[in-house]
Amino acid sequence: MRPLLFALALLAGGCATLGPSVTYLGEVRYPPTAYVERLRAEPDRPYTAIAELAYTSSTLTRREIEDRLAEQARALGADAVVLGQSTLAQLRSADDTQRHEETYRFSAVAIRYRDR
What we know:
- The protein is of the alpha+beta class.
- It has 2 helices and 5 strands; from the N terminus they run H-E-E-E-H-E-E.
- It has one domain: Translation Initiation Factor IF3.
- Strands 1-3-5-4-2 form a 5-stranded mixed β-sheet, with helices on one face.
- It starts with a helix and ends with a strand.
- The relative contact order is 0.26.
């Protein structure tokens, strides 16, 4: 069993795309929407924030990550996604050696308009 866990840890540590994370901001869950508006700033319309989204990757382009964040927001029932900034993060290898990998973490907030 131990060699399998070690192999899985190496495989996970070697993956360049670390993927998405979702933090729900309330108890209500919505059905998926057909379209999600992409915003760079908060809208003037009244809205409810339904989830904080993040995507961490070292291989995808900004556009690809924004596409994935928008798809996450759509799946959560959002009307729009407010795209945030990216931050540079250093990740250690799975065996905790000095090998580092540059990754970027992109953040966003999935929102649902109240006046719909």
